[in-house]
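Standup notes
- HV: blocked on the assembly model, inputs below
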Amino acid sequence: MKDYPDKMTPEQARMFGEDVLNIVSQIPRGKVTTYGHIAAWAGWPSHSRMVGRTLRYTPGAEELPCHRVVNIAGRTAPGWSRQRILLEEEGVTFKPNGHVDMDKHLWEPGVSE
DNA sequence: TGCTTGACAGAAG
DNA sequence: CCTTCTGCCAAGC
């Protein structure tokens, strides 16, 4: 049996969205995680894009520390320069190339739950 | 129904 | 480092 179905039912999509928001809300201050990690922990390893889409289209995501979510390269979201400012104010360090120092600030979902 | 888009990931040039 | 391509999958047109 497969680990996950081929496509999401509306109910699966709803669950996924809740898991994403739930995980994001648990990211510790001064830490960051990636879309891929969140998607994988939610049970849909190949839906990393859906994570970003959910955060962008879900009203209320502003309440969450969604600025602590970056891609696996430590790059911040395109068109959202403010994200970097928010992270810097939390103590997150950036490499000279403008990317988050993942080695120091990467947080994996579920490590402290 | 079919093609395009994107807050991604990974590889290639 | 940057850009571009492929694979991925839901949403929009």
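- HV (later): unblocked. The first helix of chain A runs from residue 10 to 24. Chain A has a mean pLDDT of 89.
- Next: hand off to the docking folks.
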